[in-house]
Amino acid sequence: MTAFPSAPRPGRKPEDQRARLRDAAAEVFLEHxxxxxxxDMIAQQAKASKKTLYAHFTSKEELFVAAIEAIxxxxxxxxxALDDPGQTPQQVLTVFGLRMLERILSPRAIAxxxxxxxxxxxxxxxxxxxYRSGPATLQAILTDHMRALQAxxxxxxxxxxxxxxxFIQMVIGDYQRQVSMAMIPAPSPAEAERHVQRxxxxxxxxRG
Length: 208
What we know:
With 208 residues, the chain is mostly helical. The protein has helices spanning 17-36, 39-46, 50-56, 60-80, 89-104, 107-119, 124-133, 135-151, 160-180, 189-207.
């Protein structure tokens, strides 16, 4: 089974059995998809009994919710922590864009993106869960940054959520599609920086 590296969770204790079960479930879901995954498979991956699993989670669906929320939280956490005061719009957007590209194109993030797309038709609720925890949350985070830049007079008075959506698509859109389809590898740091700098220059030129 392929192992997808996860970001470390500060303060997480080894005895946190619920987290261990959730992380084991994430590995199985990413490898086999929601539909093909069984509780038995998760128990085997976690080296735990089904009784232990059901003591912490009432169903496969609840395990999936916990796994997806944890993965999205790990992926987007570094973006929430970014601090803007005193930075120019170019600095704010460049740092955010680089960090976003790195996180969204990580092997684990790409794997969960493929999972959501692949299961969307058969399991729309699971796809909606991913969208709320991932893309919608990402846009909400960047919307706050756009709102702060507008309040400081750095951007035209426009819809900050729309600005966030446009910037996200400019930075990750084609890269995410091609990496998800295994057409290209994730960009090198130098390629990512060049791409984000060009996007930021274009974006700020468009939005004043």
